[in-house]
Fold each of these.
Amino acid sequence: MVGPWIFAGFLNWTVNARSVLPLIPAAGILMFRRLESIPSLFAPRRSAAALAVGLAISALLSFWITSSDVAWANSQREAANLLYQKTRSERGGVFLAGHWGFQYYMQAAGFTLGDEENSNFREGDLVVIPENNTELIKRLAQFRFVAQQNLELLRGNLAATMASTLDAGFHSSYWGPLPFAFGKVPLGIYHIGRLAPLERQDTATHQGNPD
């Protein structure tokens, strides 16, 4: 138990439920041993019924949450496929922002990961920015993002593992303190736009305000 606790709390780059999962079997064994020391809780008939009900509820909850996480992953794959169909005839550069599964599927389709400092952006390049992601392109020195259209996809079934509006951050606490949450799951939104030169006013503001 100490090993996963040290890794999850002090060594990993972010707090997430995945890093805590190895702790659960050991913690469960210790909790059950403690409960066994209370004889009244484990009468033969009552213990069997309680165990069956508890396992059934846990199984239903686990499958529900897992299906929500799978829906989010599948929506990113679907988004990558749709974006490929929309942009495969582009003559200029097509860049993506963000990481996670979206980056994996987009790069597998031949898209280039955009970087604010190292990418060779040009006027007219197409950029895809997902809302529910991290390490997004926020501001470029010479260009501004001109939105053209949004791609919106369903990504859950009244439960979410990664949704900042519900404070659910299973894979990273950057989204919120909860491993999962229930409620109206926001759509997966992907902003599609082109890079245009900064206007004079924008340039002056950018040069005078380094933030």
Amino acid sequence: MNGVIVSSLGAVIAVAFACAIGSLLLWMFRVPKAVSADVAKARRSLDSATLILVPTVGTPYARRGVELACRLAQEQRAEILLVYVVEVPRTLPLGAALPQAEQEAEAALATANEVVVLHHLPVNTYVQRAREAGEGIISAAKDHRADLIVMGIGSRAQAAHLWGRTADALLHRAPCEVIFDKLPE
């Protein structure tokens, strides 16, 4: 009686093992669905982003830009570089002490950093000094060899100010792809 149970159990284990190996081989050798070369190229171009630069100023629309960058970065485990540009007036040297602006930069970067940490992505923060925000973002993108810039922008009134200088500079002179995320009204 014991021998029958053992041999039956052995047969069941052998069948289960054979089914598992068979399904594994079917999965390994299945041919993926064919896609056009253009589709494959579009997917590959986004997969190549290893460093995503996200300018932030601590506003809700800037945090939304950070969230979008995190979602784009998750599949390829890209690194997020959070940048705050301190705009230094032309009447002062670039290295001039601006304690209020530096405190705002640290607070905005800390909040944005929390968003990235929630996604378990590698993150670095950086304070860039420049005369204009657009130039500072471009300089940071070049210095850090960013593959993509993701920037959240606000509603129409806020966007009007942004589209004047910063976005124009990014659209014309950024060394990489740029994505703008406009917060709905």
Amino acid sequence: MNTELCSLIALAAVVGGCATDPAPPEYAGAGAIAVVAAAAPAKGSILRSAAVDGALEDRILALDPNHVSEADVASTLSKAPAPHIMLIHGGIYPVHLMMESTGKFLVKMGYPEARIRDPGRDRRWSYSPYEDSAHLAGLLAWYYEHEGVRPMMIGHSQGGIQAVKVLYELAGKFSDSVRVYDPYKDGELDRTTIVDPLNGAQRPVVGLELCYASTIGAGGMTLLLPNQWSMMDKMYAIPDTVEDYTGFVLDFDPIGWRGTFSSAGKATVRNVELPLGYNHLTTPYVSPLADDKAIRDWIAAYVPGQALSNPPGEAAGYATVWAADVWYSIKKHWTLEAQRLIRARRTAIGQS
């Protein structure tokens, strides 16, 4: 484990008792959230703008979502429409650097950086668990409306609780409507509906389904924090506003404990226990893994549930299994969403 990571662990141990987030960065709109007017994209405009070379579309459609190789990512998937990934970090300073490491890992593995970082504000890599969950839900709706592919979420520690809370916001459990949130204007829009980019129909934000979400070390004692009290009876029941959810738990985790996630309806839910020795704080610190060819090859070959040799020795001290499982799911849903968008576009123009 490198010196930078050890330093972060030491710093978090010193300040961890306060469980607070750093002061929010200065950006336009900080404080009272402005409600602004902004028209939705014109019907069919996203499908038209998503058009790529027909041969490339054919290659994307030919991909097997369950077996996407590193070569597939480099030659085909990297050129496909990509869902926005919302990273939500934990609540102890400077744990946001851990999720920044996750974002950089994904970029090194081939995911477009522009589909991870906030396009407005300060180009942040991840969001705080203290931000308004309704704003995050409205932001996800904006991404879907403007990009045509359903977003993903990854939450760490208290950020995992926030991710599930956002799913409940989208399910309408806290309010029967949610305003769209514009990342460039950094404010709520004066509408609670979006134009569905695939069929042009107007639909409410409430009910929007994400394609994938996962959490690591979420729940446990952090549910006792006042900003998460509303999740005490909801945390481990995943609503229908995500298609595929993975709850990662650590073998010994005095913070996140060992809760078991289940579906509250139709969502596909997996519970994954990570190997002994992974640390609650540092699990998302995985960027260095993408710099080693042997480790990259191991991660690329990983398939959930299939027997595989132990990660290379160079990966010691890092949460390699977590990184591999998350990357597998991201590749899978990236493929499925790109295929979904291409099929919708071809149907709209009458092309088989």
Amino acid sequence: MTDLRGAIAQGHYAQKQLFSRDRLVAWSHGRRFDTAVALAREFAGKRILDYGSGDGTFLALTMMTPGPPALAVGAELTAETVSDCRRRYLKEPRLSFVQVNELGGSDHLGQYDAVFCMEVLEHVVDWNPELARFKSLLKRDGRLIISVPVETGLPLAVKQTVRRIAGWRKIGHYPGNSSYSLAEMAAGLFAGASQHLRRPVFDTGSGPFHDHKGFNWMVLKDRLQQDFVVERVLASPLPRLGPHLATQAWLIARLPE
């Protein structure tokens, strides 16, 4: 347990999120991980995969619960990230880490009771390949659990304010987040279930991606329902507010019968 805590504290994202110098940022991300770990308890003794696992914080936290998964696999794009996680979590045999391009093997296809994908799809330009991959990884009765930021309505105004203040304080990577014009901000505040802004696309050499600007979780939900059955929609950090007033939306889905 002590080794896992130390390994988590060394993680690149954990240092910016869970251990952020901004208390609001740390609290919000802490509540997000609390939600994820609570959902993971439904798969105690089973196999789970975290797609876009980052520094492995979530998977390590699941291993510290009374009902951990039997096996947890983290998948990331770069060999450097995978190597870092393998090094820090070497002493936890129930944790393993692979590159995304390794997920096509028989050890992975149709092998997971749950696939988690948290704070990833808002950055993906084309969701189709990812959703097809999720379908191939799940068992027939498995569950897909997606977490994305809410970047519409009142939460957008709150987040942009927090990001601006964090940027002034040189905390995190918030100064790099795309700015909004007044018209774009108004479109975001009153966004419905259709795409309300043309999203900027960036490429730093590893392929095209979006930042948070213009992301609409309701558009993702509609796209998800073309291939999956969305069973539940949850919210964090304050679940009772619902996703329209929260900072993160959670989509829990299954394969169609």
